Queue: 2 jobs
Job 1
Amino acid sequence: MSEKPLSTPLAGRTAIVTGATSGLGRRFAHLLSAAGASVALMGRRVDRLENEVAAIAAKGGKAVAIALDVAHAGAIAPAFDEAQAALGPLDILINNAGVGGEGMALDLAIESFDQTFDVNVRGVYFAAQAAAQRMIEGGAAGRDTARIVNIASIVGFTPIQGLSAYAGSKAAVLMITQTMAREWARHGIAVNAICPGYIETEINADWFKTEGGQKQVKGFPRRRLMDEGALDETLMLLCGPAARFITGTAITVDDGQSL
Ligand code: NAP
């Protein structure tokens, strides 16, 4: 039996994207909207969120901008409640907000380490928790539309010098993903991760302009960076009906960079 794929497979769903002010998060918000979902865009730079919401509305989508610093874990639940009040019960969380935190381990500042873990680990953990609570209460879990996608990284399993804190934070995201997937399997919530390789965005643009950055790119098997659309199909797979039997998985999309 073959069914024609829907052009808006996420029609009627409500999604939250953290870190939607730039790079991958902005891309994900537009992608989910184009697939029919109503989207709450969250981040700290509210002017940027509002610009993206206006751009989505201009294309006929429904979106809201909600200020959220995920490093303030206590602010996450109220922001998610605001999203539900505006858009309806939550189905999808894209746990995307992240910071780099570069520095050699011998002298990395405590503040830098804490900022990396506050955003990349605590932020991801408590956003997933707040989402799962609402997916269970709101019925998405029972309808098999509940999806949490955590944006990890290939450095969560590939050591790269100068990224010990960031790499540690992304390794934590991978194990948190698996454990939450195990705990929430019986509720019908799919929890998965994507491990991207290097995609040129604001998080690394300065680095890849340097000689060291150019040298790193030349060392990649395909001698290139990926573009912002590299994760589109994987994200859609993990947000849509195809993920009804996929949970606790991390999908690597890295153009062979970790090989
Ligand atoms: P980016 O353009 O720098 O975007 C990062 C986003 O995170 C921004 O929207 C930023 O928004 C948000 N953010 C940072 N701190 C935040 C906080 N405390 N609270 C809420 N939002 C916060 O970088 P990107 O490449 O798109 O990164 C997105 C995700 O992909 C990150 O988790 C990153 O680790 C991961 N990743 C990226 C690559 C890559 O090569 N680009 C590779 C692997 C994984 P505000 O500053 O407005 O708050």
Note: The radius of gyration is 18 Å.
Job 2
Amino acid sequence: MSEIGKNLVVISGPSGCGKDTVVKAILKKDERFVLSVSATTRSKRPYEVDGVDYIFLSTQEFIGKISKGDFLEHTMYCNNYYGTLKSQIEEKISNGKVVILVIEVEGAANVKKVYPDALTIFVAPPSLEELERRLRERNTEDDGTIKQRLFKANEELGFQSSYDYIVENNYVDQCSQSIIDIFDGKK
Ligand code: 5GP
């Protein structure tokens, strides 16, 4: 097994399924895990912090990093670039940590190609209706973007079966614990 692959946990799930909250709960419960901070060209939401939630880049800066080969994977999602920086992963794993990547389905498939022993987990919403309710309640996107994200969510749900595990997010505490247990081989 590659040292990197066995220390990678890739988590996907449609926008609004609560995966960010689940990942925060994992990080709080268990200090073995750290988050890979992705780069993106999406504009920053008011509560987000540059370098913590994302590394916010201009399109030109992002394309520059693509051509330098800085990304393990990158993709275009709802008209913005998102990518995992190799440096994020290599540095954290060499410090003895298990790195969680919260990325969409195409990126997850690309990571699995490079590191077949990475653990991939799909966080599923209880239903599409619940997903729409959560997205609207979050109130961070306009109606057009919500519709685009719901369309994308439907598409993403079709990829669930290509993940090692599917975990339904009904309760954050349960869902986060299930992911830790899966990592530890208890499930
Ligand atoms: P959001 O704009 O809601 O923060 O993220 C949109 C989607 O992009 C989410 O599904 C999120 O998991 C995904 N994403 C975030 N960072 C990356 C990344 O580095 N690579 C890929 N492929 N997807 C990412």
Note: DSSP finds seven helices and nine strands in the chain.
